[in-house]
Amino acid sequence: xxxxxxxxxxxxxxxxxxxxxxxxxxxxxxxxxxxxxxxxxxxxxxxxxxxxxxxxxxxxxxxxxxxxxxxxxxxxxxxxxxxxxxxxxxxxxxxxxxxxxxxxxxxxxxxxxxxxxxxxxxxxxxxxxxxxxxxxxxxxxxxxxxxxxxxxxxxxxxxxxxxxxxxxxxxxxxxxxxxxxxxxxxxxxxxxxxxxxxxxxxxxxxxx
Length: 208
Hints:
alpha/beta; four-stranded parallel beta sheet
């Protein structure tokens, strides 16, 4: 990361939402607006930065301009910032959020999988890319309103029958916006027998 960008980015600090980790305005505010509004299936999650420049541009380059090397940089930052937290959560397996096979074929890779594999190297935690899979080709969440996002993600994921559910798993994705993707994945994992689903992402939408 260049010194110029390093100066511009701000890590998310306290006070933050106790559920999704978004910044909140006051120390006494326990949950952000989105988490107060919805009942979310995951246990807790955190992100490195707010989704704004220069972070948003870097993630765009990572996803759409084949900058796969960025995965290592992002994973190193996640491990540095939240490695201790991941051990506190007693994570047994890292599960990257899967892409639909048609989308992955078109892009050539799944950015969450690259990120998850790099984080696995940094933390020594096993990464499983077969446990969770995408059943439905969903529309891009950024183009939808809150209600449409929920409907879009319904029935989006499946869990492999051969997978033995763990007590504590960590979902990895690039961006957290309203949490519908993470929530839907967590819901089906808990239905399969997982006790706690946590998440880490590179960035998070502001939506305070």
